[in-house]
Write a structure and sequence with these properties.
By secondary structure, this protein is an alpha+beta fold. The chain has eight helices and four strands.
Length: 151
């Protein structure tokens, strides 16, 4: 079994609505391992680095301003196909296109307030994890537990 890590962030609207526990629970129930989590208010410079791939898009300034408007909950999850499965669990970027049962399909209605960010590839996950967490903040499950339920 080959595990990978993904970066999931609950955006200010999800935090403000009290959805952290709901979202954590969905990833836990799916069977992913929580590797790291932090609750923080991010500055514009940090968020501009995070969303650097979108800087040419017309919505970029508004996105960064919105993301800096309140605290976020940044997380790293680990498991088999964590990136792809995490994106499926989140649902389509536009909640109107998200299937029932997904986080966005169940919990939001507006694309500008779509509750979560999720890495779209293993490469972007690694970049985002490095941007948000120090190496020593990441739990190494193989060194802390002898076995895991899915191994």
């Amino acid at each position: 079994m080959s595990d990978e890590r993904t970066f999931i962030m609950i955006k200010p609207d999800g935090v403000q609505r009290g959805l952290i526990g709901e979202i954590l629970g969905r990833f836990e129930r799916k069977g992913f391992k929580l590797v790291a989590m932090k609750f923080q208010q991010s500055d514009v410079a940090h968020l501009e680095k995070h969303y650097d791939d979108l800087k040419a898009r017309p919505f970029f300034p508004g996105l960064v301003k919105y993301m800096a408007s309140g605290p976020v909950c940044a997380m790293v999850w680990e498991g088999l196909n964590a990136v792809k499965t995490g994106r499926v669990m989140l649902g389509a970027t536009n909640p109107a296109d998200s299937a029932p049962g997904t986080i966005r399909g169940d919990l939001c209605i507006q694309v500008g307030r779509n509750i979560c960010h999720g890495s779209d590839s293993v490469e972007s996950a690694n970049k985002e994890i490095d941007l948000w967490f120090k190496k020593e903040e990441l739990v190494n499950w193989t060194s802390t537990q002898k076995s895991w339920v899915y191994e």
